[in-house]
Structure formats: C-alpha cells, structure tokens
Design goal:
This protein is of the alpha+beta class and 377 residues long. It is built from 6 helices and 26 strands. The protein has 3 domains: 113 residues, Roll (DNA Polymerase III, Chain A, domain 2), CATH 3.10.150; 124 residues, DNA Polymerase III, Chain A, domain 2, CATH 3.10.150; 119 residues, Roll (DNA Polymerase III, Chain A, domain 2).
C-alpha cells in the first residue's frame, strides 16, 4: 500500500473514526483503525468495537492499493501533530511508514484478517439540519444518567412521528426534552429508539458542521437494533439500548404559580461563583423577589457566599434550592439571552425554558425540568 494525502484531511479522518475507540478493548484488534487504499484515488478508514462503527472516505493520490490495520489512537495523535505538509503512507514488511517532511514514523501492522466486519450501511429514514441536530442532542444528553445503576437511563429516547422529533433524557433528578422537525423519507414515519447518550452526543458534535445529516432508524437500519448517521463521506452506526423507557413526562408541572425571567449569562456566572463554597452535594438557594434574585450557599460556621442578579417576577415570591451543577447544566445548553424559570411550590419540580428578550415569549421547544433540593430553613 502506498498513498499521499494532505495532513489536515488525514488528521480529520482519523480523528473521526478513532474518537470512540475503547481505551481497554476486550480484543486487541478493536483498538485499531482499518485503512483501505483504492487505486481509484480514495482511502477509506474504519473502526468498529461491536457497539459503534465509524467510516470515512477521503481523496488521496494512491500508487498502490492495500489494506492495513494500525493502532487508531496512536495514528490519530501522530496525524494531529504532523507539520502542515503532504503525508506519505506506505507499507514495508510488517510496518506502516508515515512520512511528513522530515518527520518519520514506523507503526506495527495489526492482523487485519481478525478485524470484524462493519455493519451494513443502513438506508436513511430522513434528514435533519446539522446545526439543529447538534444543539438538540446537546440539550437533552446533558440530563442522561452517567452511571451504570440503570443502563436504560444512559440513553436518549428518540421518538419520531411524521415530521416531528421528540428527544428525551433523564437521570431521575432532572429531565430534558427537545421537540424539533426533520424531513422524513416517508410522511407517516414512526419510530422509537433509545440511543446511548454519550455516543449520540459525540456523533452529533462530530457531524454538526455538516449542512444536513441522514438518520436511519427502525427497520431501515437493518432490523438489527442499530441507528445510522451519515453526512458527506462520514458514516456511523451505534447499537440501540434495549428496554422500555419509563413514562417520565408526567413530571412536567401542569400549572404554574410563579415565573421569573433572568439574564442567562448573569445567572450562570453568579451561580458559578456562589457554588464555590457549596460542599459536595449541597445546594445553592435561590430567593426570587420582584426585581431581584438572591443566590446563596453555605450556612452556620461553614464558608458562605451570596450574590444578586436582576429578575422579573410574576406571581408570589418563592425560595427554592437546587444542585448547582444540575442547574448550570441546564442553563449552559439553553442558548438564549434570557432564562424563564417556572414554579409551583418549593418542593415541586421547576421548569427552565429560554427566551430571546426579557419581555418575550418562552421557547417551549426545549424544556429542562429540575428537581429541587430540601434545605434547612
């Protein structure tokens, strides 16, 4: 095998396929990236760990076709750090040589014959704008469980009904839901899939620069419990989670007694500062009055902090406490200048939504529900 490719092109391609490689693979070959050069002028890089697959095809000057398997993370590190010059890749005996300018690396070939076959590329179920998809995934994935106690809660529930897509995630302490539209291949499309949140978020970030992303769900994904993503020459699949997702939408309050509108950036900075004195698992207290939101943490002989930000209040005054990290997670993905917080009572869940102007209308396409924390009066 022998080919030449631009450094930026190679680095981007290797980063795409190597991003999900397991740190401790159960089988050594799963730490590899498969590189296939074609005399037609293309090089295809692939990775697969039986759960997630990634594949990308790039243009290259190919002198000799061939297939090799090399350590993916090492190749990614090397590609990122090469000088901005063309890269020559060739095989010599049991080694793969990577040469760029005066930089020269010699990598050991792994056994390509033992590498598993990637899942077949699924047929697309529809398309969605890349920036919309990336933002929506980030907004819901933040609420997915990061532990292993209930594996089903580590996923994002994706429900498709025609042109409507609803994404939902919860870790029992907060719940995030985003509604958006897409372009289905069939107007009566109906799918429900539970996608691992971490993989979905990584894939969305990596494909977000694309104008359009193709999704493959349901029977179109081959009926093998897979979901597929494709944008340009980048393709990826991931195995879906099994199980029935809990019916958690009943957590959304059916009525609102108090609403407050606060500048998002000011609230984020204030919570970050006050939370510096909040010990692990201790909340920050928020006291909403007309014109002002007071934020406090710490009590008694412990370190204490307080800060105030402007607030527009509708309804009775209220004092409530939240886990500061969960609160910041929700605020961090709103993407709007102002945050609307809706309450019923201090012991009931609060709802965060975003809005563009202080006296504007809340955008309920994204809702972040946060459970309050009890605090000593």
């Amino acid at each position: 095998m022998k080919f030449r490719v631009e450094r930026e092109v190679l680095a981007d391609a290797v980063s795409w396929v190597a991003r999900g490689l397991p740190a401790r693979p159960p089988v050594p070959v799963l730490a590899g990236v498969l590189v296939e050069a074609d005399r037609a002028g293309t090089v295809t890089l692939s990775s697969f760990d039986y759960e997630v697959s990634a594949k990308v095809t790039i243009a290259a000057d190919v002198d000799e076709s061939g297939t090799v398997l090399v350590l993916g993370r090492l190749l990614a590190d090397i590609s990122r750090n090469l000088p901005p010059r063309p890269v020559d890749v060739s095989t010599e005996g049991s080694k793969v040589n990577v040469v760029c300018g005066t930089s020269r690396f010699s990598l050991l070939m792994m056994s390509a014959d033992e590498y598993p076959t990637l899942p077949a590329a699924p047929d697309p179920s529809g398309t969605i704008a890349g920036d919309v998809f990336t933002q929506a995934v980030a907004q819901v994935a933040v609420a997915a469980d990061r532990g292993d106690t209930l594996p089903i809660l580590t996923g994002v529930r994706v429900q498709i009904d025609g042109e409507k897509v609803t994404m939902l995630a919860t870790d029992r302490y907060r719940l995030a839901m985003r509604e958006l539209t897409w372009n289905p291949a069939s107007p009566d499309a109906a799918y429900i899939a539970l996608v691992p949140a971490r993989t979905l978020n990584d894939t969305a970030k990596a494909l977000g620069a694309s104008a359009s992303i193709e999704l493959a769900l349901g029977s179109n994904a081959g009926g093998d419990g897979l979901v597929g993503f494709e944008a340009g020459q980048r393709r990826s699949t991931t195995r879906l989670l099994d199980g029935e997702y809990p019916k958690v939408t009943s957590i959304f309050p059916t009525s609102v007694d108090t609403e407050a509108v606060v500048p998002t950036a000011a609230l984020v900075e204030a919570v970050k500062r006050v939370a510096l004195v909040a010990e692990r698992n201790t909340p920050v207290r928020l006291r909403f009055t007309d014109g002002q939101l007071a934020i406090e943490a710490g009590a008694g002989e412990d370190a204490q902090a307080s800060e105030a930000v402007e607030c527009t209040l509708t309804g009775p005054e209220i004092e409530i406490a939240f886990n500061p990290h969960f609160l910041l997670d929700g605020l961090g993905v709103l993407g709007t200048a102002f945050t609307r917080l809706s309450f019923t009572q201090p012991s009931r869940p609060a709802v965060l939504t975003g809005q563009a102007e202080v006296d504007g209308v809340a955008d309920t396409a994204y809702r972040y529900v946060l459970m309050p924390v009890r605090f000593a009066s």
